Amino acid sequence: MASLRTFVQSEIRSSIGVKEEILGMDALTEEIACVAELCVSVFQGGNRILLAGNGGSAADAQHIAAEFVSRFMFDRPGLPAISLTTDPSTVTAIGNDYGYENLFSRQLQANGRPGDLFIGISTSGKSPNILRGFKTCHDLGIHSVALTGKGGIQAMELADHCLMVPSSSTARIQESHILIGHVICAIVERLIFGDRERL
């Protein structure tokens, strides 16, 4: 039992360590704030946020979309956000007919509009369907943000903004993506519905 407790403590310290590294990266924290302001601009312009990822990142996309649509810190009107991973019929139809690599680009082409924002989540920054999604955004005038980890150079090169977690561990990257998503949601709520002095 003692060895398991030591392992638990080690994992927690590892997670905290990555977050402390993020905290010390001025460029990254400024970029997080910049993306939050972009989200506000998108919503205030009558547009919406589209999110996508694979596996655990698909769950993260759904999680962040739900925070916008329902609520995060306090009651307020819903904000238009959609996860592109939640409709099994659409996912399987595109995968079957056009290939899994076109899963998100096809949905962005069908449902995205100029001025919308696509948040593509990929811990490696190399997911073909996310990268194709960024290319489609460029063609359609849709803003794009990559949430990735160390080494996500392809995503950084294709997206308008890149929030790159300084880790190569999938678990640590995903934990940090949710933290970043929560911070963005908190800023968005306060800038649109709350008192700006509280920031």
UniProtKB/TrEMBL annotation:
Reactions this protein catalyses: 2 D-sedoheptulose 7-phosphate = D-glycero-alpha-D-manno-heptose 7-phosphate + D-glycero-beta-D-manno-heptose 7-phosphate
SUPFAM superfamilies xrefs: SIS domain
Family annotation (CDD domains): SIS_GmhA (cd05006)
GO molecular function terms attached to this record: isomerase activity
Pathway, per record: Carbohydrate biosynthesis; D-glycero-D-manno-heptose 7-phosphate biosynthesis; D-glycero-alpha-D-manno-heptose 7-phosphate and D-glycero-beta-D-manno-heptose 7-phosphate from sedoheptulose 7-phosphate: step 1/1
Primary subcellular site in the record, as a coarse category: cytoplasm
Protein name according to UniProt: Phosphoheptose isomerase
Source species of the chain: Thermithiobacillus plumbiphilus
